[in-house]
Amino acid sequence: MSELLHGLAPVIGRQTRLVVLGSFPSVASLQAQQYYAHPRNQFWPLLSALWGVDLAGMAYLARLAEVKRRGLGIWDVYASCRRDGSLDSAIEDSVPNDLASLKRRAPRLSAVAHNGGESAKAMAITRTLGVEVLRLPSTSPANASWSFDRKLAAWREAFATHGLL
Q1: What are the Cα distances from residue 165, in Å, to 12, 49, 70, 125?
Q2: What is the total count of domains within the chain?
């Protein structure tokens, strides 16, 4: 059995209006201790395209500061799990993060956006927060059926609706 893996701390500020919830960090993200660190993950390129800022060219801490400044939060559904590799389908023995604490962590929260299908399995929990809950197409390289432009359109709509553009 694989070892127990632990996720990353939430990136949430008092000004956070929209939180993007992934499932659990990839192997690359865990090794780097950075959200969406896999070079083919489209999370940072999508945000760069939405905001007209080269986030990928920034140091990681500067990226996080920009995200928080713009009202975006980043976290994952699972706090820990066992998993060989990075595929969501390999997640076992998962322990959820305290998603019920999102409103306390982010008093201005107006929406939660699930980044992909595995994260969306927690929609029953996030719907109890009294904010809009969305399912966005996954930014993972495993989601090759959606083009970058198609993902960008879906993410743009969510960000525009919640004042992040």
Answers
A1: 18, 11, 8, 27
A2: 1
Residues of the chain with pLDDT under 70: 1
**Which are the catalytic amino acids?**
41
Instruction: Say how far residue 55 (Cα) sits from the centre of its chain.
Output: 15
Cα dist from 118 to 30, 68, 163, whole Å = 18, 24, 26
User: What's the pLDDT tens digit per position in 46-79?
Assistant: 999 999 999 989 999 999 999 999 999 999 999 9
Domain harbouring 68, CATH code? 3.40.470.10
Domain that holds residue 143: 4-161
Q: What is the length of the chain?
A: 165
Specify whether the CB–CB gap between 107 and 16 falls below 8 A. no
Rounded to two decimals, the pTM is 0.96
